[in-house]
Amino acid sequence: RDRAELESLQDAVDNFVAEDVQEFSELPLSSATLEGLKSAYYTKLTDIQSRALPLALKGKDVLGAARTGSGKTLAFLIPILEVLLRKKWGPNDGLGALVISPTRELAVQIFEVLRKIGHKHQFSAGLVIGGKSLKDEQERLSRMNILVATPGRLLQHMDQTLGFECDQLQMLVLDEADRILDMGFSASINAIVANLPKQRQTLLFSATQTKSVKDLARLSLKDPQYVAVREGI
Ligand code: ADP
Ligand code: MG
Questions:
Q1: Cα 3 to ligand 1 centre (Å)
Q2: Which residue in 122, 126, 116, 98 sits closest to 192, CA to CA?
Q3: What are residue 212's phi and psi, to 5 degrees?
Q4: Nearest of 51, 85, 46 to residue 69 by alpha carbon
Q5: Among 153, 86, 102, which residue's Cα sits nearest to residue 126?
Q6: Where is the DEAD-box RNA helicase Q domain (predicted)?
Q7: Residues of 162-183 as b/e, b for ≥16 C-beta within 10 angstroms?
Q8: Is 0.95 topped by the overall pTM?
Q9: Backbone angles phi, psi at 62, to 5 degrees
Q10: Taking burial as the number of CB atoms within 10 A of a residue's CB, which of 57, 148, 191, 207 is the most buried?
């Protein structure tokens, strides 16, 4: 059943033409993700989701700008689940996706949304945000498929945690990139990105498009698709 679903899903993605997508059920998504979305009462896409999801699902790098509250979280969590599923990512494949968030609070929120919409999937997911014992995090880290992390703590693990490897990483997400930069994490992000495989998909989301966000995008994205949603109702 699973293999047949994955093959037809990949065909559906390849043949998908995004025309004014209104509902998640119109997107080429796995039944696991659709069930997760449904159980969380998500049915209609927001603007940034309907612009960014078709591109991200096809494997493009995306630079997305939209105000706070516009629904950027699902615009990157859904592609993570779908891309890893289509690549048949399993427990022994290691870290497949990494989400970097500026603060612990935002990382926890992202993780909660991931749990809400991802419960039908088999991936292991973890938080790397500091505030608790490094050792506890270290022990679980090598088994994680999806991580949501703050920059400082992530770098600490990259430097100090034996067995923490990112060399199979398929997808990097930089969320709230403007805030990451405002908080002075620019050098940390550069050091993190230097540790990641060049062959990967990268999604960068930001509430504002500043020059430093564009500089970061130039360094971390490949042939990015720009998606900006204007203010207003
Ligand atoms: P942003 O990251 O752009 O600030 P969030 O992803 O945190 O926005 O979403 C803001 C709020 O909108 C959250 O409460 C979220 O549950 C809700 N939301 C996001 N997408 C949808 C959707 N498609 N349908 C209904 N509510 C949504
Ligand atoms: Mg957000």
A1: 32
A2: 98
A3: -70, -30
A4: 46
A5: 153
A6: 22-50
A7: eebebeebbbbbbbbbbbbbee
A8: yes
A9: -130, 135
A10: 148
Nearest-CA residue for ligand 1 atom 12 is 71
Distance of alpha carbon 112 from alpha carbon 114, whole angstroms: 5
Tell me 58's DSSP state: T
3-state secondary structure of 127: strand
Q: Kindly state if the Cβ of 72 falls inside 6 Å of ligand 1.
A: yes
Q: Is 189 in the pocket of ligand 1 (CB under 6 A)?
A: no
The Cα 34–Cα 114 span in angstroms is 13
Atom of ligand 1 minimally distant from the CA of 109? 7
Q: Show pLDDT as tens, one digit a residue, over the chain (233 residues).
A: 688 889 999 999 999 998 889 999 999 999 999 999 999 999 999 999 999 999 999 999 999 999 999 999 999 999 999 999 999 999 899 999 999 999 999 999 999 999 999 999 999 999 999 888 888 888 888 889 999 999 999 999 999 998 899 999 999 999 999 999 999 999 999 999 999 999 999 999 999 999 999 999 999 999 999 999 976 54
Type of residue found at 227: V
What domains sit in the chain, N to C, each tagged with a CATH number? 2-228 (3.40.50.300)
What angle (nearest 5°) sits at the alpha carbon of residue 61, between those of residues 213 and 68? Answer: 50
Residue where the block lists tokens 């696991």 = 32
